[in-house]
Design goal:
The protein is mainly alpha-helical. It is built from two helices and no strands. The radius of gyration is 38 Å and the shape is rod-shaped.
């Protein structure tokens, strides 16, 4: 598109008609504005999609972190429970030794 408008601007300049030059420049500006608007719209859509994709990834990561934390908490509770169960057995053995 840019080549067409540049070509029309050059043709208008060669004919030495100021009105033709103005029209060619206006067409060139309008085409440039439309191209910029399309590019901005496309970029905005891509950014929106990327943000939405990352939002989903963040949610999945958060769920995974919560899962790992819960597993670690469960392991720690289990370990502590085992330690607590062993303590009375050790105390009983110590009392038997004392007697």
């Amino acid at each position: 598109m840019g080549a067409v408008t540049e070509m029309s601007a050059e043709v208008a300049k060669e004919t030495d008609k100021p009105e033709a030059v103005q029209v060619a420049e206006q067409v060139h500006e309008q085409v440039a504005e439309k191209v910029v608007a399309q590019v901005l719209e496309t970029v905005q859509q891509q950014v929106t999609e990327a943000v939405q994709d990352q939002g989903g990834q963040v949610e999945k990561l958060q769920e995974k972190v919560e899962e790992i934390v819960m597993e670690k908490v469960a392991e720690a509770v289990q370990k502590k429970a085992e330690e607590v169960q062993q303590q009375p057995e050790q105390r009983t053995e110590e009392k038997k030794d004392v007697l």
